[in-house]
């Protein structure tokens, strides 16, 4: 059997290939029909185990392998690898709907060997029906990135809970293989308790010998941008820059391109803003056609480019697990590869936002379930949003958890209460506390004077770890320059000050609101595309906006000049505004009107107090969905009669959801104004791409 397995290995990787320690042992465990958990370092070759196991099992007449895989980029990468040993691997996912009929036909005719799906597909009725039609049944069940099924895994994806339910229904002779690089002892115990107490654990050392790690403290975004432009051209080969947000992916990629570096952003919906799709971008990186992809964690687990020469983090990740996974993309077939972590002042703020937004609390679950329970005829997602101040994504998380645990069920588009007593704990408080501890560990990593790789391995409970001898701390000297010159930072600051965000007009009123307005916002009442001068808090104008608003309590002449110059010389809306109005506030009655009035003077057009705030409302940033945002403010504003009838520049300081602009613009148009152009000093993220 080993000779057969080695033959397939050479077919995949070449005649010189040989198994790594524990690879054949893992294959042997699987084809012996054991439940097996493989915990091995990134780049070790976990996919080889399930490819070769599948080939051997299929040769002996077994049914199809079902591979649960968390990322589409991982699926595409694996399908190409599987072809090398004659495995026909197919996938069902949201990006290939036009192929579903063909794929399902192949599965029913036993003409494919591996079906790769995301965990979310498990809840799809069509997929569940397909499983019943597989004539030979499931021959092997694989859970890739298995740490995700743990309550303590790094990612909150409720559909991973469905995996355990399927595993528990499999016949005893169907092997189950779980693989991961990032399970510490606590997570291994959790996986074992869910997949099977008799699971065989094959665990190896996690040290990645080729990686050279360095941490560099550069406080501002401008300093980090300057560092990238200075150093990336000096690193051979291609790589990945990881950013915490899609806005930063776009910003960093655009900056690098202005500096002559071939860089593209990569994130979940990149094709909506760029002509290139994610598969296009992956191929370009794989073929060394570009220098760098600037990515969120969408290009993470399992992406396999053996000669990737560097991974740089623009911000500090939230966990050692995420960091180890991401730097593990580099240096798989190289003797030396860089892993450079840039860390600065906003890192904690970003990660704390993600931590607090990640998990539905027990209170939110109870609130959503109460709405379902109180409905006589079921309740839709929009019905939940109308009743509970909760974001749509969070509401869907709650509904999915309640459905998985059988406290509610879905029929059509509505949810109904089941008879199962509610006694769930989402572990949100425990996991959130654990995430904060992990954030502290990442801070310790950035501050340690000991070996970085050894620190990481010990956090993952690798008792074989030792100092790597290759990182900046081991060598006691920088691997790459840790500094930037003032003139380089100044250039980056000017770039950031030149950035602006398009404010897309809201085009439809939220469904089910109490304002009496439904459907499309009529063309005669729509705002035109607006602009935000900056991203709130960034190192360009965004930082000054934040300081002026909360510390100085008035906006400086510098911001007035910057706004006027932008409107007159960069934006140049056509037709130009005839007058200026402000979005008023009862909390800060003079802040925005004063700025808008001075801006109007600088633009050479009149300012009118055209809109009054007639009653207090909750701050929009505390409203979690569109229904609540519109209802919160709709009757709070009144347009003064006899306003000027020309085109309006509608000014606010900070844009959150965009609904305040849309409601005020609607009221202005209804009262007889011309075109309304929203203009904000900063956006917290509701805008789209910079133009």
UniProtKB/TrEMBL annotation:
Pfam families in the record: DEAD, Helicase_C, RecQ_Zn_bind
Family affiliation: Belongs to the helicase family. RecQ subfamily.
UniProt-listed SMART domains: DEXDc, HELICc
Keywords, alphabetical: ATP-binding, DNA-binding, Helicase, Hydrolase, Isomerase, Metal-binding, Nucleotide-binding
Superkingdom: Bacteria
Domain Helicase ATP-binding: 27-201
Catalytic activity field: Couples ATP hydrolysis with the unwinding of duplex DNA by translocating in the 3'-5' direction
Domain Helicase C-terminal span(s) in chain numbering: 227-376
PANTHER family tied to this protein: ATP-DEPENDENT DNA HELICASE Q1, DNA HELICASE RECQ FAMILY MEMBER
Isomerase recorded as keyword: yes
Protein name: ATP-dependent DNA helicase RecQ
InterPro entries, sorted: DEAD/DEAH_box_helicase_dom, DNA/RNA_helicase_DEAH_CS, DNA_helicase_ATP-dep_RecQ, Helicase_ATP-bd, Helicase_C-like, P-loop_NTPase, PRTase-like, PRTase_dom
Provenance organism: Paenibacillus rhizoplanae
EC code(s) of this entry: 5.6.2.4
Gene Ontology molecular function: DNA helicase activity; hydrolase activity
